[in-house]
Amino acid sequence: MLYALMIEDDPDITTLLVNFLKTYGIALNAVTTPEAALSLLSTDRFDFIILDLTLPQMDGLELCEIIRTRTDVPIIISSARSDINDKVIALGYGADDYLPKPYEPRELIARIKSVLRRYRPVLSEKSIRFTLNQDEQRILHNGSALSLTRAEYEILVLFILHPNQTLSRDFLSGNTESISWESSVRTIDVIISRLRQKIETDPKTPRYIHSVRGSGYRFTG
After folding, report:
1. How many domains, the chain?
2. Within this chain, do residues 195 and 92 fall inside the same structural domain, yes or no?
3. Residue 207: helix, strand or coil by DSSP?
């Protein structure tokens, strides 16, 4: 499941895309104001952002610039504004793509896939001290294979693929097959504790998996 943030004040577009993207395994969190978007970005993790330019409170171009100073998450501009200057400025501020309205939702899917391919090659990720082999479902730590349960393996894979990002417990449980959405927060914490026992020199002072109070965990490889 991918998680996307959409900043859009047209409820018809929002409703259409929430339902459409869900069929492609994308959960869309839609907000109508820049203030709400910046608040979510300070607490939640997203795989990409869909940003309209004509917004209340603040112009979308200004918001794009602010977002880029806070995160490198891909930004796709979705706007009815066709002025070439808007496109040039948006790309200069760090937007990854510019999709003029109106458009077919299928084109948005194609743009999303293209942006994510450029942003994150998912299948062969390595961190400095951890090597992930997804074909063999094996993780090496400093050259030695780790003995992991299914849940431990799935969570460590998520950490390796999202280094230096705060991952919420909901994200961790929602992106693993062996942990159900109904699992308690304590379940995730127990698995994290077991992982620390296996990869940390001093689990009480972790080097790799750090707790982020009120948000989740961050992995630094």
Report:
1. 2
2. no
3. coil
140 C-beta neighbours (distance < 10 Å), count:
14
**Which of these three, 75, 98, 119, is where a domain ends?**
119
Q: Is the pLDDT of residue 119 over 80?
A: no
Distance CA 64, CA 165 (A): 20
Range of the domain at 133: 124-219
pLDDT for position 120: 54
Residue 75's DSSP bridge partners are 49
What mean pLDDT comes out for the span 202-219? 91
Query: Where on the phi/psi map is residue 79: left (φ > 0), alpha (ψ -120 to 50), or beta?
Result: beta
Same domain, 92 and 151: no
pTM here is: 0.57
Residue with token string 């780790």: 146
Domain final position from 68, 91, 119:
119
Half-sphere exposure of 48 (CA within 13 A, CB side): 26
